[in-house]
Amino acid sequence: MSAAIQPYTLLDDEDCEKRILAAREKLGDRLVMLCHHYQRDEVFAHADFTGDSLKLSRQAASSKADYIVFCGVHFMAEVADILSRPEQISILPDMSAGCSMADMADLQNVQRAWQELSEVLNPDETITPVTYINSAADLKGFCGEHGGIVCTSTNAKHVLEWCFQQREKVLFFPDQHLGRNTGATMDIPLEEMVVWDFDKPLGGLTVEQIQQAKIILWKGFCSVHQMFQPEQIDNFKQKYPETNIIAHPESPFEVCQKSDYIGSTEYIINTIANAEPGSRWLVATELNLVNRLHEQFKHEGKNVHFMSPNVCMCSTMFRIDPQHLAWVLENLVEGNVVNQISVPEDVAEQAKLALDRMLDVSP
Ligand code: 13P
Ligand code: SF4
User: pTM for the full model?
Assistant: First the structure.
């Protein structure tokens, strides 16, 4: 029988650290720990591999370990399950580590949108569905089934270019900001990127708006990145005019328009790592990552600042703590699998189609 989580919640971080290390020693290369950049330091320190969503997906696909413990959020562990071999086991240390943006699109609403769009045009001939990787597996399955594809913040432009080679329009969910910011880099005018409000009939759009649209954007967003505002850039630049602005593309359009660099978490890290000593950076992405960058590069004289005056932490990523990690690892040592993420086979098959298309077009 598996040990319960409750006693672990009483352990302090130092005890957990020792127990995690001891369990890892016993599990050896039967275990791989993949860790997203937004994880807190006490968890991040145990990673075998760190990365953005694309890098970690590739890592999961190539891993040989029996157990893939994913320190990230639910959709990431689902992708690991879909891309790994059937006998490999994907584990999310805390099942409540979801993604609020991913929850803004569900299969029922997307199917309804597809149905409603078919009253205006034939979606299977004219629209490629694209789901951001921050989405449930059944939405990836929907894309697989309808000739669509998955994207990440790294490859969104390549993916959209691929889409427009297939069909004339794109339905992009759940993140309107990534869709709009990517479309803008391809010179698609704002009026040809309309927002589909899933609470309204026909997405709150007119037939003409749909007919003229290149990209139909789902009305979803990331509550963390939504906090960044263009005024924060203006205020900061008044004090430090020489500042470089770098933003994750989940940030609002107006923030990305004022940014010098836009890209995934991995891109943000690499850009600052390769910057000149003494340079100053205002960063629009999650707080744990920005704090880590600040610590990592201050010795090189680089100044890394967080864009928002408010705390913008991904509270669901934060649910993965040393206590849950110690719990799942000690259970694995005892031969008990807890918190396995297992995508039903029929969904996984279609979702893999969409993920493989993405991996094929990715740089
Ligand atoms: P990256 O793929 O850029 O790491 O983004 C994942 C994410 O959830 C950002 O909010
Ligand atoms: Fe989801 Fe936003 Fe957290 Fe990323 S930062 S996992 S998009 S809630």
Answer: 0.97
